[in-house]
């Protein structure tokens, strides 16, 4: 009798393990973007490991450019800049056409390739869906406060350099829609209607793509913009405030 029970127990355990294996297989097939070993594809939905994969592009400009090419993103590679502890060797500038539809103002925004890759995914997966939900219109333009700036954190004379010092950050100030809506971080962050909801949604969505996301909720220095960067925080850690 004891032997029979052991056999039944073993069969039950095997059945449970098999069911778990089938469930895992089905999950992997339905959401490959959630697997750490899946190759990054900018045209695929955002997954649990997407942010870490984007940050990892810091060390591989060739792979980053290949991802932009495969996603149909038009861009120009920028000449390297070297200025002491500042500068970059992986800068790109979006150009007209291709899979992206949002312009940046002022024009000629240059950013590091990992920031550009995340901006493209942010446009497709976060910004445009949020704009359709809240305004029934797409975003045509993003107002920004720049990227490359050879300075230390918070403009101090000493201490660590900002991610802006390597074009690895961008500051987003506002949005324009095709039907004429203007959404400003400075003026609309506390809005209790569609504009405020939109800003919070695109801020939160950025947290799945950028290593650092800072907003007016962080401090007064960010009252008029979102700061996005791809700082290498190690082990996939990010800051979302």
From TrEMBL:
Residues 63-241 form the Extensin-like C-terminal domain. Keywords: Membrane, Transmembrane, Transmembrane helix. The chain crosses the membrane at residues 7-28. Pfam families: Extensin-like_C. This is Extensin family protein. The lineage of its organism: Bacteria, Pseudomonadati, Pseudomonadota, Alphaproteobacteria, Sphingomonadales.
